[in-house]
Amino acid sequence: MAPKNKFSKEQIVDAAFHIAKTDGMDSITIRKVADQLGSSIAPIYVNFNDVQELKQAVVKKVVNVSHHLLNENNTGNPFSDIGVTSLQFAKMYPVLFRDFVMKQNDYLLDYDQEMENSLVTHMKKDSELEDFTDEELQTILFKMRAFQMGISVMVANGLFPEKVGIEKMKEMLDSVAEDIVTATHLRKKKE
Question: Whole-angstrom Cα distance, residue 175 to residue 180?
């Protein structure tokens, strides 16, 4: 007889997410999740075949958290929205940020392409960017992400002086975004 399903998939993923956000993705084990739930391992195996399947569910939750933050920051300025979202994620979830961004891993193989497509779609809503092709938007996004990632890494690692708050970082992101878009427009005119 199969063990009774005592916990929902969502509760199990939430417990695994809690472990990941405090100790990192590599710390997720079936035993630790069971301990987090105050349970045996049986209910976890009722919902997930193995720890890798559970970790993929946690990755999906991280993606959903990222999308939720992006939607909360929907000001109509895509670069600002993307940058502020990254800064917030790095500040709220520094361990996860380091796991996903600063470590070689397989967790985000599908996430990066999905997120890039979503961000390019988000960028197309900006009238200042509507004349660019998808390829040009991807290049602009890559340049901006390189700068934004540097700031986010500094946030996740506590390297910014306390006097430099989110607003100052947002000003820096906006300034660099404006520079990148202006330079891309100028290059496009030369062609």
Answer: 9
Class of domain 1-58: mainly alpha
Residue 1 pLDDT > 50: no
DSSP 6: -
Alpha helices in the chain, H assignment, sequence order: 9-23, 30-37, 42-47, 51-72, 78-92, 94-97, 109-123, 134-156, 166-190
132: tokens are: 């660019």
- Domain spans of the chain, in order of start: 1-58, 73-190
pTM: 0.78
Q: How high is the pLDDT of residue 129?
A: 87
pLDDT, tens digit, for every residue of 92-129? Answer: 999 999 988 887 777 666 566 666 777 788 788 788 88
How many C-alpha atoms does 146 have within 13 Å on its Cβ side? 6
- 33/28 Cα distance (integer angstroms): 7
CA separation for the pair 174, 84 (Å, rounded): 10
Distance separating the N- and C-terminal Cα atoms of the chain: 70
Longest Cα–Cα distance in the chain: 72
Residue with tokens 């100028």: 186
Cα gap 63→139, rounded to integer Å: 22
Give the distance from CA 73 to its chain's centroid: 14
